Amino acid sequence: MEMNIFNDRDLSWLSFNKRVLDETLLDDLKIYDKIKFLAIHSSNLDEFARVRLAALENEAEQSSPEEREMHLKALYDARQEVYNQSLASRKILEQVVLPQLRSHNINLYYGDSTYLQEHYEEMIHIFMSKVLSYLQPVTITSHTNVFLEDRMLYFLVHVNAGRRLNDLKIVLNIPANSLPRFFTLSKVDDKHYIVYLDDIIRIGVQSLFKNFEFKGIYSIKINRNADLHVDDDTEDEADFVEVLQRGLDLRKTGAPSRFQYDASMPETLIKFCHQQFQLEEGEMLPVGHYLSSSDFFRFPNPNGGSLQQANWTPLKHPSLSLYGNYFNAIASQDYLIHFPYQSYDYVLVFFNLAVLDQDVTEIMATFYRVAQDSHIVNALISAAKNGKKVKAFVELKARFDEANNLHWANEMAKAGVEITYSIPGIKVHAKAALIKRRENGKEKKYAFFGTGNFNEKTAAIYSDMGLFTSNPNLCNELESMFQYLYKRQQPAPFKHLLVSQFGSLEKFVQLIDNEIAAAKQGQPSGIIIKVNNLEEEEVINKLYEASRAGVPIKLCVRSICRIKPGVPGLSENIELIRVVGRYLEHSRVFIFHNKGQQDIYLGSADWMKRNLRSRVEVVFPVYDEAIKKQVLDFIAIQFTPATKTQWLSPNLEPMPWEEEVKQYCPQQSFYDYLKNQQSQ
């Protein structure tokens, strides 16, 4: 049987999420950091269920009879792994997190805990004074249509009310969207006590309805298909916004993709849920007494900062910080900033100076995920009100940020910013800005290129890079890309930037081919790639070809990874690692040996079909030699054997390092590297 040369897309992503969960098992991670990773893992599974499980269901339903078995197996495998990880998360909570909390005198009432009398009375008071008004019980009858909202928590309450009402089933909301999921109770004997909102409701409801015989109260939760499938063929922006809004409304009522329920629920009620909520058997997963560990993002911390790792103070750039006027600085040389290791304030200052500088005539920017309270957008609004020409391209198809992006687009438009919305059939994922300035009677251009969004919130937790430059070649080509976005003017061929839709895939293939040719001629060669996702089969096949030709290839892939490294005769020259740390690895780096000249590119594009074929992405070259060295040093740190770096097998299983583990975490090492540069 011929070997499948590609890993499964969804299982590869789930292996990354398993790695996130494994962070909780590291002994030197503080307890509240472990709790944070539990929350991240749960939130990731929710999104996977809403998007990928739903997509796999659709693919299975719409597939031909010949391919249906293959699609059903992919769906089954993904569901099974989601279920396994859900159980593993609960086990870690019960066997690792809760005992460690108790060792710090923090007690979470859990499961069959016996409540102290004073806490029982306190919980009744909380229920009556703060919770009861938010409860919306619905008795299920043959005439009742009960709709469970996506990601909301509910109880299925089974009661005997006497007489003919001996088998009532009631759906009761758990209002964690309006109230805290966890309440802190009174301290007793130097011990802190915390209780789930769920348990306050369990106790309160039973005390309120003492004449009812409670047969059972079971947690349930549904995930629904959240893919909009917006028909964006229209060129009319007003029509598209209307279509998008309808899509957002439909998302709330999407078909079920995952139904979680208390594993203690009896078979009769499981069958009842199956029928009542129109579920498929494979969608139903028995998990535990409590659902939605993502709420642990807001778990109370009565002991303060001692139980979590200290934040790293964002560093200053060693030379850009010396300038009061960034335009003078950027006119003299390029600057690369590493977020969040170095302060994101440099980007904010760049935009704020453009607002205040009387010589700035025009500002252009792209937005994919806008922060909810965006300083950058407010700067553009101020610039427009000050009479400057401001243009913004806002991508309205950024999944789960559509409504927020639309809000800010409307706010900018009100202030006079020239807004352009989505391009039909294509997402604009580029992260770039261009500023035009009058200097000595001539126009001078300044650009910012990023690997991450113009978003202050994500910039604090995503590891990204940003380049400030006044290089005319890069600035002119960026303006050409903006003209395409704003006016659909077909750009001239790009010679410096790699822009998806305009030859970036072909350029990447050419760069790999150059390394293949060098290896075949017996010359040094090499490829180093760092991306979030690697899925595009044409690129993977080209990397396999390069490996067979003898090109050494190093890959750092965070999430989806379909390539199989280290397979004899196919990919024995390919090494694959994954880095997970306090920051989400998000920067994309592309390095090609090029006879020792080191072609280095950074940008917004992963090597996925969608990024290379159905998005507008910008990948930009690094020309400054000092910046090149810094990027190479960063990559060297990433690939140094480390406790928090996984070296992966062909099936994406972690393997023991053949070399001595030389560092704990590459992110810590790189922060120290930049800190040392700052002090020199």
UniProtKB/TrEMBL annotation:
Keywords: ATP-binding, Kinase, Magnesium, Metal-binding, Nucleotide-binding, Phosphoprotein, Transferase. Its EC number is 2.7.4.1. Mg(2+) binds at R369, R399. Belongs to the polyphosphate kinase 1 (PPK1) family. An intermediate of this reaction is the autophosphorylated ppk in which a phosphate is covalently linked to a histidine residue through a N-P bond. The keyword ATP-binding applies. It catalyses: [phosphate](n) + ATP = [phosphate](n+1) + ADP. Gene3D superfamilies: Endonuclease Chain A (3.30.870.10), Polyphosphate kinase middle domain (3.30.1840.10), Polyphosphate kinase N-terminal domain (1.20.58.310). One of its GO terms (molecular function) is kinase activity. The keyword Repressor does not apply. Residues 581-611 form the PLD phosphodiesterase domain. CDD domains: PLDc_EcPPK1_C1_like. PANTHER family: POLYPHOSPHATE KINASE (PTHR30218). The active site is at H429. ATP binds at N44, Y462, R558, H586. This is Polyphosphate kinase.
